[in-house]
User: Fold this.
Amino acid sequence: MELSMQKKTVLGLQHVVAMFGATVLVPLLTGLDPSVALLAAGIGTLSFHLITKRMVPVFLGSSFAFIPAIILATERGYSWAAIGFGIIMAGVLYVLMGGLVALIGHERVTRIFPPIVTGPVIIVIGMTLAPVALSMAEGAWWLAILTLATAVVAAVFFKGLFKMLPILTGAIVGYIFGAIFFPEFSFQPVLDAAWIGLPDFTWGWQDPNWSAVWLIAPIAFVTMIEHVGDIVANGGVVGKNFLDEPGLNRTLMGDGIATAIAGLIGGPPNTTYSENTGVLAVTKVYDPMILRIGAGFAIFLALIPKLAAILRTVPVPVLGGLSTVLFGMIAAVGLRTLVTAQVDFKKSRNMIVVGMILVFGLGVSGLSSALSIGDVEISGLALAAVVGVVLNLVLPEKDEDDEVALPAKIIAGGE
Assistant:
Protein backbone atom coordinates (compact mmCIF):
# COMPACT_ATOMS: atom_id res chain seq x y z
CA MET A 1 0.00 0.00 0.00
CA GLU A 2 1.37 3.38 -1.04
CA LEU A 3 1.58 5.85 1.83
CA SER A 4 0.53 9.46 1.49
CA MET A 5 3.19 12.16 1.53
CA GLN A 6 1.88 13.35 4.90
CA LYS A 7 2.42 9.91 6.48
CA LYS A 8 5.86 9.63 4.91
CA THR A 9 6.76 13.02 6.37
CA VAL A 10 5.69 11.96 9.86
CA LEU A 11 7.64 8.70 9.56
CA GLY A 12 10.68 10.65 8.32
CA LEU A 13 10.51 12.93 11.35
CA GLN A 14 10.34 9.84 13.56
CA HIS A 15 13.65 8.64 12.11
CA VAL A 16 15.23 12.01 12.95
CA VAL A 17 14.04 11.66 16.54
CA ALA A 18 15.59 8.18 16.70
CA MET A 19 19.03 9.36 15.55
CA PHE A 20 19.03 12.81 17.14
CA GLY A 21 20.28 12.05 20.66
CA ALA A 22 23.31 10.01 19.69
CA THR A 23 24.18 12.19 16.69
CA VAL A 24 24.39 15.43 18.68
CA LEU A 25 25.99 13.79 21.73
CA VAL A 26 29.19 12.96 19.82
CA PRO A 27 30.00 16.61 18.95
CA LEU A 28 29.02 17.74 22.45
CA LEU A 29 31.55 15.29 23.93
CA THR A 30 34.34 16.14 21.49
CA GLY A 31 33.89 19.90 21.14
CA LEU A 32 32.58 19.87 17.57
CA ASP A 33 29.52 21.83 16.44
CA PRO A 34 26.25 19.84 16.86
CA SER A 35 24.64 21.78 14.01
CA VAL A 36 27.44 20.71 11.68
CA ALA A 37 26.94 17.13 12.87
CA LEU A 38 23.24 17.29 11.95
CA LEU A 39 24.06 18.83 8.59
CA ALA A 40 26.72 16.18 7.91
CA ALA A 41 24.27 13.42 8.90
CA GLY A 42 21.61 14.77 6.55
CA ILE A 43 23.90 15.32 3.58
CA GLY A 44 25.74 12.07 4.30
CA THR A 45 22.49 10.09 4.33
CA LEU A 46 21.42 11.58 1.00
CA SER A 47 24.80 10.86 -0.59
CA PHE A 48 24.72 7.30 0.77
CA HIS A 49 21.32 6.73 -0.83
CA LEU A 50 22.54 8.13 -4.14
CA ILE A 51 25.61 5.85 -4.21
CA THR A 52 23.61 2.76 -3.17
CA LYS A 53 21.04 3.21 -5.96
CA ARG A 54 18.45 4.52 -3.45
CA MET A 55 17.78 0.93 -2.39
CA VAL A 56 18.98 0.72 1.23
CA PRO A 57 16.77 2.27 3.98
CA VAL A 58 19.66 3.48 6.13
CA PHE A 59 20.22 6.67 8.15
CA LEU A 60 23.74 7.85 8.90
CA GLY A 61 24.74 9.67 12.08
CA SER A 62 27.76 10.49 14.25
CA SER A 63 30.08 7.58 15.07
CA PHE A 64 31.05 6.93 18.71
CA ALA A 65 34.03 4.79 17.72
CA PHE A 66 36.07 7.87 16.76
CA ILE A 67 35.52 9.73 20.06
CA PRO A 68 38.71 8.49 21.81
CA ALA A 69 40.90 9.43 18.85
CA ILE A 70 39.29 12.87 18.45
CA ILE A 71 39.64 13.62 22.17
CA LEU A 72 43.26 12.46 22.10
CA ALA A 73 43.95 14.62 19.06
CA THR A 74 42.56 17.71 20.82
CA GLU A 75 44.63 16.93 23.93
CA ARG A 76 47.72 16.71 21.72
CA GLY A 77 46.99 20.19 20.40
CA TYR A 78 45.93 19.37 16.84
CA SER A 79 43.71 21.97 15.20
CA TRP A 80 40.09 21.22 14.32
CA ALA A 81 41.08 21.48 10.65
CA ALA A 82 43.73 18.78 11.19
CA ILE A 83 41.16 16.59 12.90
CA GLY A 84 38.80 17.19 9.98
CA PHE A 85 41.53 16.10 7.57
CA GLY A 86 41.99 12.91 9.58
CA ILE A 87 38.25 12.26 9.29
CA ILE A 88 38.41 12.86 5.53
CA MET A 89 41.17 10.24 5.29
CA ALA A 90 39.00 7.81 7.28
CA GLY A 91 36.38 8.28 4.58
CA VAL A 92 39.01 7.65 1.92
CA LEU A 93 39.88 4.32 3.60
CA TYR A 94 36.21 3.35 3.37
CA VAL A 95 36.19 4.14 -0.35
CA LEU A 96 39.40 2.16 -0.93
CA MET A 97 37.96 -0.80 0.96
CA GLY A 98 34.83 -0.54 -1.16
CA GLY A 99 37.00 -0.77 -4.26
CA LEU A 100 38.79 -3.82 -2.83
CA VAL A 101 35.45 -5.50 -2.12
CA ALA A 102 34.38 -4.85 -5.71
CA LEU A 103 37.56 -6.56 -6.93
CA ILE A 104 37.72 -9.67 -4.72
CA GLY A 105 34.23 -10.03 -3.21
CA HIS A 106 32.88 -9.24 0.24
CA GLU A 107 33.40 -12.76 1.62
CA ARG A 108 37.21 -12.53 1.47
CA VAL A 109 37.35 -9.05 2.96
CA THR A 110 35.00 -9.67 5.89
CA ARG A 111 37.02 -12.79 6.77
CA ILE A 112 39.86 -10.51 7.90
CA PHE A 113 37.71 -9.07 10.70
CA PRO A 114 36.03 -11.97 12.53
CA PRO A 115 34.23 -11.55 15.87
CA ILE A 116 37.35 -12.60 17.81
CA VAL A 117 38.94 -9.35 16.58
CA THR A 118 35.97 -6.98 16.41
CA GLY A 119 34.48 -7.98 19.79
CA PRO A 120 37.44 -7.01 21.99
CA VAL A 121 38.15 -3.91 19.86
CA ILE A 122 34.61 -2.72 20.59
CA ILE A 123 35.21 -3.43 24.28
CA VAL A 124 38.33 -1.25 24.11
CA ILE A 125 36.27 1.61 22.63
CA GLY A 126 33.82 1.56 25.55
CA MET A 127 36.44 1.12 28.26
CA THR A 128 38.72 3.82 26.85
CA LEU A 129 35.84 6.27 27.03
CA ALA A 130 34.79 5.33 30.59
CA PRO A 131 37.07 7.89 32.33
CA VAL A 132 35.68 10.63 30.07
CA ALA A 133 32.13 9.86 31.19
CA LEU A 134 32.96 9.78 34.90
CA SER A 135 35.03 12.96 34.75
CA MET A 136 32.02 14.80 33.34
CA ALA A 137 29.70 13.32 35.93
CA GLU A 138 31.76 14.38 38.94
CA GLY A 139 30.66 18.02 38.60
CA ALA A 140 27.23 17.04 40.00
CA TRP A 141 26.88 13.36 40.68
CA TRP A 142 23.20 13.62 41.61
CA LEU A 143 22.34 15.07 38.20
CA ALA A 144 24.45 12.51 36.35
CA ILE A 145 22.88 9.62 38.28
CA LEU A 146 19.37 11.00 37.69
CA THR A 147 20.07 11.23 33.96
CA LEU A 148 21.60 7.77 33.90
CA ALA A 149 18.69 6.24 35.84
CA THR A 150 16.13 7.84 33.51
CA ALA A 151 17.92 6.45 30.44
CA VAL A 152 18.09 2.97 32.01
CA VAL A 153 14.41 3.00 32.97
CA ALA A 154 13.45 4.10 29.46
CA ALA A 155 15.56 1.37 27.87
CA VAL A 156 14.27 -1.42 30.12
CA PHE A 157 10.65 -0.54 30.92
CA PHE A 158 9.37 1.67 28.08
CA LYS A 159 7.64 0.16 25.05
CA GLY A 160 7.72 0.72 21.30
CA LEU A 161 9.56 3.70 19.86
CA PHE A 162 10.19 5.23 23.30
CA LYS A 163 12.16 2.12 24.24
CA MET A 164 14.54 3.02 21.38
CA LEU A 165 15.02 6.57 22.62
CA PRO A 166 16.52 6.15 26.12
CA ILE A 167 19.32 8.66 25.48
CA LEU A 168 16.94 11.36 24.28
CA THR A 169 14.59 10.66 27.22
CA GLY A 170 17.44 10.86 29.73
CA ALA A 171 18.72 14.06 28.11
CA ILE A 172 15.33 15.78 28.36
CA VAL A 173 14.81 14.85 32.02
CA GLY A 174 18.39 15.73 32.92
CA TYR A 175 18.15 19.07 31.09
CA ILE A 176 14.94 20.05 32.92
CA PHE A 177 16.38 19.25 36.36
CA GLY A 178 19.68 20.86 35.44
CA ALA A 179 17.94 24.05 34.32
CA ILE A 180 16.14 24.25 37.67
CA PHE A 181 18.79 23.10 40.15
CA PHE A 182 22.24 23.22 38.51
CA PRO A 183 23.85 26.51 39.63
CA GLU A 184 26.04 26.91 36.52
CA PHE A 185 23.15 26.63 34.08
CA SER A 186 22.42 29.64 31.90
CA PHE A 187 19.75 29.97 29.21
CA GLN A 188 21.19 33.24 27.94
CA PRO A 189 23.03 31.70 24.94
CA VAL A 190 19.70 30.41 23.65
CA LEU A 191 18.09 33.83 23.98
CA ASP A 192 21.01 35.42 22.14
CA ALA A 193 21.07 32.95 19.25
CA ALA A 194 19.37 33.63 15.92
CA TRP A 195 16.50 31.56 14.62
CA ILE A 196 17.94 30.91 11.17
CA GLY A 197 21.59 30.77 10.12
CA LEU A 198 24.46 28.63 8.90
CA PRO A 199 26.51 26.62 11.40
CA ASP A 200 30.20 27.34 11.98
CA PHE A 201 32.19 25.29 9.50
CA THR A 202 35.78 24.16 10.04
CA TRP A 203 37.23 23.25 6.65
CA GLY A 204 39.14 19.97 6.84
CA TRP A 205 41.50 20.68 3.95
CA GLN A 206 43.15 23.67 5.66
CA ASP A 207 45.56 21.69 7.87
CA PRO A 208 46.63 18.34 6.30
CA ASN A 209 48.46 16.98 9.36
CA TRP A 210 49.49 13.35 8.84
CA SER A 211 50.10 12.72 12.54
CA ALA A 212 46.43 13.48 13.14
CA VAL A 213 45.57 11.15 10.26
CA TRP A 214 47.41 8.26 11.94
CA LEU A 215 45.47 8.89 15.14
CA ILE A 216 42.04 9.06 13.55
CA ALA A 217 41.85 7.35 10.16
CA PRO A 218 42.72 3.74 11.22
CA ILE A 219 39.57 3.66 13.36
CA ALA A 220 37.74 3.25 10.04
CA PHE A 221 38.84 -0.41 9.98
CA VAL A 222 36.89 -0.92 13.21
CA THR A 223 33.74 0.88 12.05
CA MET A 224 33.78 -0.99 8.73
CA ILE A 225 32.88 -4.13 10.63
CA GLU A 226 30.14 -2.25 12.44
CA HIS A 227 28.98 -1.15 9.00
CA VAL A 228 28.80 -4.73 7.73
CA GLY A 229 26.77 -5.79 10.76
CA ASP A 230 24.35 -2.89 10.36
CA ILE A 231 23.85 -3.58 6.66
CA VAL A 232 23.22 -7.28 7.36
CA ALA A 233 20.76 -6.40 10.15
CA ASN A 234 19.03 -3.84 7.95
CA GLY A 235 18.68 -6.38 5.16
CA GLY A 236 17.33 -8.93 7.63
CA VAL A 237 14.60 -6.54 8.73
CA VAL A 238 13.69 -5.55 5.18
CA GLY A 239 14.01 -9.08 3.77
CA LYS A 240 16.77 -8.35 1.22
CA ASN A 241 20.46 -9.16 0.86
CA PHE A 242 22.06 -5.74 0.52
CA LEU A 243 25.56 -7.25 0.56
CA ASP A 244 24.84 -8.59 -2.95
CA GLU A 245 22.62 -5.80 -4.30
CA PRO A 246 23.44 -2.92 -4.37
CA GLY A 247 26.57 -4.57 -2.92
CA LEU A 248 28.84 -4.12 0.08
CA ASN A 249 31.25 -2.16 -2.14
CA ARG A 250 28.61 0.51 -2.72
CA THR A 251 27.48 0.70 0.91
CA LEU A 252 31.10 1.06 2.08
CA MET A 253 31.74 3.77 -0.50
CA GLY A 254 28.53 5.53 0.51
CA ASP A 255 29.56 5.48 4.17
CA GLY A 256 33.04 6.68 3.22
CA ILE A 257 31.82 9.59 1.11
CA ALA A 258 29.49 10.62 3.94
CA THR A 259 32.38 10.53 6.43
CA ALA A 260 34.64 12.51 4.09
CA ILE A 261 31.91 15.16 3.69
CA ALA A 262 31.61 15.37 7.48
CA GLY A 263 35.36 15.88 7.87
CA LEU A 264 35.35 18.42 5.07
CA ILE A 265 32.89 20.72 6.87
CA GLY A 266 34.02 20.05 10.46
CA GLY A 267 31.62 17.36 11.62
CA PRO A 268 32.21 13.98 13.30
CA PRO A 269 32.57 10.83 11.15
CA ASN A 270 29.35 9.22 10.03
CA THR A 271 28.23 5.63 10.40
CA THR A 272 25.09 3.60 9.71
CA TYR A 273 22.65 3.79 12.63
CA SER A 274 21.07 0.67 14.11
CA GLU A 275 18.59 2.93 15.96
CA ASN A 276 16.87 3.64 12.65
CA THR A 277 16.91 -0.02 11.68
CA GLY A 278 15.00 -0.54 14.92
CA VAL A 279 12.42 2.02 13.80
CA LEU A 280 12.04 0.10 10.53
CA ALA A 281 11.37 -3.08 12.52
CA VAL A 282 8.70 -1.33 14.62
CA THR A 283 6.89 0.50 11.81
CA LYS A 284 7.38 -2.21 9.15
CA VAL A 285 7.67 0.57 6.57
CA TYR A 286 10.86 0.13 4.57
CA ASP A 287 10.58 2.82 1.89
CA PRO A 288 14.05 4.44 1.56
CA MET A 289 12.34 7.69 0.58
CA ILE A 290 11.22 8.08 4.19
CA LEU A 291 14.85 8.02 5.34
CA ARG A 292 15.66 10.70 2.77
CA ILE A 293 12.80 12.82 4.11
CA GLY A 294 14.35 12.39 7.56
CA ALA A 295 17.69 13.54 6.14
CA GLY A 296 15.96 16.69 4.91
CA PHE A 297 14.65 17.34 8.43
CA ALA A 298 18.18 16.92 9.83
CA ILE A 299 19.51 19.50 7.38
CA PHE A 300 16.70 21.90 8.32
CA LEU A 301 17.44 21.51 12.05
CA ALA A 302 21.11 22.25 11.36
CA LEU A 303 20.09 25.69 10.11
CA ILE A 304 18.46 26.69 13.43
CA PRO A 305 21.16 28.27 15.66
CA LYS A 306 18.80 28.35 18.65
CA LEU A 307 18.69 24.55 18.60
CA ALA A 308 22.48 24.40 18.64
CA ALA A 309 22.50 26.88 21.53
CA ILE A 310 20.09 24.67 23.50
CA LEU A 311 22.37 21.69 22.95
CA ARG A 312 25.41 23.66 24.12
CA THR A 313 23.63 24.62 27.36
CA VAL A 314 23.14 20.97 28.39
CA PRO A 315 24.87 20.68 31.80
CA VAL A 316 28.11 18.69 31.65
CA PRO A 317 26.96 16.21 34.37
CA VAL A 318 23.96 15.37 32.17
CA LEU A 319 26.37 14.47 29.39
CA GLY A 320 28.32 12.43 31.93
CA GLY A 321 25.24 10.42 32.87
CA LEU A 322 24.29 9.79 29.25
CA SER A 323 27.87 8.85 28.37
CA THR A 324 28.09 6.38 31.23
CA VAL A 325 25.14 4.48 29.77
CA LEU A 326 26.34 4.68 26.19
CA PHE A 327 29.97 3.77 26.79
CA GLY A 328 29.00 0.87 29.04
CA MET A 329 26.63 -0.39 26.36
CA ILE A 330 29.39 -0.13 23.74
CA ALA A 331 31.65 -2.36 25.84
CA ALA A 332 28.74 -4.76 26.42
CA VAL A 333 28.14 -4.96 22.66
CA GLY A 334 31.75 -6.15 22.31
CA LEU A 335 31.12 -8.87 24.89
CA ARG A 336 27.89 -9.83 23.12
CA THR A 337 29.82 -10.13 19.85
CA LEU A 338 32.14 -12.70 21.41
CA VAL A 339 29.29 -14.62 23.06
CA THR A 340 27.12 -14.67 19.93
CA ALA A 341 30.03 -15.96 17.85
CA GLN A 342 30.67 -18.64 20.51
CA VAL A 343 34.39 -17.89 20.63
CA ASP A 344 36.08 -20.82 22.34
CA PHE A 345 38.27 -19.47 25.13
CA LYS A 346 39.61 -22.93 25.89
CA LYS A 347 41.91 -22.41 22.92
CA SER A 348 45.10 -20.59 23.77
CA ARG A 349 45.28 -18.81 20.39
CA ASN A 350 41.88 -17.21 21.03
CA MET A 351 42.92 -16.10 24.50
CA ILE A 352 46.12 -14.60 23.10
CA VAL A 353 44.31 -12.68 20.34
CA VAL A 354 41.71 -11.23 22.70
CA GLY A 355 44.21 -10.61 25.50
CA MET A 356 46.67 -8.73 23.29
CA ILE A 357 43.90 -6.54 21.86
CA LEU A 358 42.77 -5.60 25.38
CA VAL A 359 46.29 -4.98 26.68
CA PHE A 360 47.43 -2.82 23.79
CA GLY A 361 44.09 -1.03 23.43
CA LEU A 362 43.69 -0.14 27.10
CA GLY A 363 47.36 0.01 28.03
CA VAL A 364 48.45 2.58 25.45
CA SER A 365 45.76 5.00 26.59
CA GLY A 366 47.21 4.84 30.11
CA LEU A 367 50.80 5.64 29.13
CA SER A 368 52.31 8.82 30.58
CA SER A 369 53.59 9.84 27.13
CA ALA A 370 52.18 9.25 23.69
CA LEU A 371 53.18 6.15 21.73
CA SER A 372 54.75 7.31 18.49
CA ILE A 373 56.86 6.21 15.55
CA GLY A 374 58.98 9.18 14.64
CA ASP A 375 56.67 12.18 14.60
CA VAL A 376 53.56 10.04 14.09
CA GLU A 377 51.43 9.29 17.17
CA ILE A 378 49.50 6.03 17.31
CA SER A 379 46.25 5.60 19.22
CA GLY A 380 45.73 2.54 21.39
CA LEU A 381 42.54 1.65 19.53
CA ALA A 382 44.25 1.66 16.13
CA LEU A 383 47.17 -0.38 17.48
CA ALA A 384 44.78 -2.87 19.09
CA ALA A 385 42.93 -3.35 15.82
CA VAL A 386 46.18 -3.95 13.90
CA VAL A 387 47.53 -6.36 16.53
CA GLY A 388 44.26 -8.29 16.55
CA VAL A 389 44.05 -8.62 12.76
CA VAL A 390 47.70 -9.71 12.44
CA LEU A 391 47.58 -12.24 15.28
CA ASN A 392 44.33 -13.73 14.01
CA LEU A 393 45.87 -14.19 10.57
CA VAL A 394 49.24 -15.64 11.64
CA LEU A 395 48.27 -17.84 14.60
CA PRO A 396 47.07 -21.21 13.28
CA GLU A 397 43.72 -22.74 14.07
CA LYS A 398 44.32 -26.15 15.64
CA ASP A 399 41.87 -29.01 15.30
CA GLU A 400 43.20 -30.91 18.28
CA ASP A 401 42.22 -30.08 21.84
CA ASP A 402 44.14 -26.96 22.78
CA GLU A 403 42.63 -26.32 26.16
CA VAL A 404 44.40 -23.86 28.42
CA ALA A 405 44.97 -25.51 31.79
CA LEU A 406 46.29 -23.14 34.43
CA PRO A 407 47.08 -24.98 37.68
CA ALA A 408 44.91 -23.99 40.57
CA LYS A 409 48.02 -23.32 42.69
CA ILE A 410 49.28 -20.72 40.22
CA ILE A 411 45.90 -19.02 40.10
CA ALA A 412 45.76 -19.01 43.92
CA GLY A 413 49.32 -17.68 44.10
CA GLY A 414 50.61 -20.49 46.31
CA GLU A 415 52.61 -23.69 46.12
Notes: Strands lie at 60-62, 270-272, 372-373, 376-377. The longest helix spans residues 5-30.
